[in-house]
Amino acid sequence: MFDLSAPPPETISNHKTRWFEFRRADVWGFVVQTTLRSAVSFEGVGLHSGKPACLTLRPASAEHGIWFKRTDISLGDTLIPARWDVVEQSPLCTRIINKAGVSVSTIEHVMAALAGCGIHNALVEIDGPEVPILDGSSQPFVSGILARGVREQYAPIRALEILKPVEVRTPNGWARLDPADRLVIDFHIDFADEAIGEQEMALDMANGAFVRELCDSRTFCRKADVDMMHANGLALGGTLENAVVVDGADVLSPGGFRHADEAVRHKMLDALGDLALAGAPILGRYTGFRAGHAMTNTLLHALFATPGAFRMTVCDPETAARLPGSGVERHEIPAVA
């Protein structure tokens, strides 16, 4: 899909620009960045704060990247880059904070949606400190993005190519990036609750796989953990409709799981959102064993601190076809109750 309404460079006529719109990948040798065609808004409550929140995704210029803006703050620096080095690590969600102390938390689901739909540039406006949880998955964000459509821009897509293995470990799990010619996410979880148990899944993220296979998988938690979080003033916006709650062998949320392995699929969704904070699509294999938000962020820190572990590459059509977001079709969004 090509956007013939985008403003052309001043040195090229409208007629010639239209020709280039159709031929640029062949002539220039690279595939271009994208943004949304128009703004789309989402309203809900924050999972942990329980407070109402409105988030709006707006188009942004080429090379802008993904930035968050707090619209409820009128003075000082209200912009926060969606970047690995401004993450304040937490085991429960991904929170970014700027030098002025302005923050936004629980960004992983909207970041996964942007990455999974192949959006490189966007301004994320939000009127509070936490992204609305919606149904606990990325599906509402994906539906909104693809309903608005994608507009191509005059700048090449650059991908972060993994050149050698990088790994981080804790006593409870580990995460690793290995060289690969596309993004593959391989995740293993192991929970005592029989309703979840041990699950593993690996998925090539190209050709719309995120939209088809992962975007509707919801956040999940154990009832014992919910009780503990409530006692500590957390998960105040959590309900049985925006999270899958399990208690031993029982699934307390109405309708049960959307997938038998919804738990590991959601972990993979989270991982895509957290990896998107690298600032560019990743060409490599991510493996997580009982990993979470903090560990994935620690892995990105290790990656950027390791000499020779990566390089940035301009994406030709063959490479771009292997990125998350390639081949996305709106009709492939899973229908949810």
Q: Features of this protein?
A:
single chain, 337 residues, alpha+beta, lpxc deacetylase, domain 1, five-stranded mixed sheet, 8 helices, 21 strands, 28% strand, disordered N terminus
Question: What is the structure about, briefly put?
Answer:
Helices cover 24% and strands 28% of the residues. The chain has 337 residues and is an alpha+beta fold.
Description:
There is one protein chain. The chain is 24% helix and 28% strand. It is an alpha+beta fold and 337 residues long. The longest helix is centred in the N-terminal third of the chain and has 15 residues, at 14-28. It has one domain: lpxc deacetylase, domain 2 (lpxc deacetylase, domain 1). Strands 2-3-9-4-5 form a 5-stranded mixed β-sheet, covered by helices on one side. It has a 5-stranded mixed β-sheet with strand order 12-13-20-14-15, with helices on one face. It has a 3-stranded antiparallel β-sheet with strand order 6-7-8, with no helix packed on it. It starts with 13 loop residues before the first helix and ends in a 17-residue tail after the last helix. The relative contact order is 0.19. It has helices spanning 14-28, 108-116, 139-148, 209-214, 223-231, 262-275, 293-305, 317-320; strands at residues 32-36, 40-45, 52-59, 66-70, 79-81, 87-88, 95-97, 103-105, 122-126, 150-156, 158-162, 166-169, 174-178, 184-190, 198-204, 220-222, 244-247, 250-251, 282-283, 285-289, 310-314. Pfam families: LpxC.
Individual helix count: 8
Question: From the helix content, strand content and strand pairing, which structural class follows?
Answer: alpha+beta
What is the share of helical residues?
A: 10-25%
**Low-pLDDT runs:** 1-24
Q: In the CATH classification, which architecture applies? A: 2-Layer Sandwich
**What is the strand arrangement across the widest sheet?**
2-3-9-4-5
* Radius of gyration computed on alpha carbons: 20 Å
| CATH homologous superfamily placement | lpxc deacetylase, domain 2
Number of domains: 1
- Total beta strand runs: 21
Largest sheet: 5 strands, mixed
Which topology does CATH recognise?
A: lpxc deacetylase, domain 1
Average residue-wise pLDDT: 89
Overall 3D shape: globular
Strand percentage lies at 25-35%
**Strand and helix order:** HEEEEEEEEHEHEEEEEEHEHEEHEEHEH
Intertermini distance: 30 Å
At the first level of CATH, the class is Alpha Beta
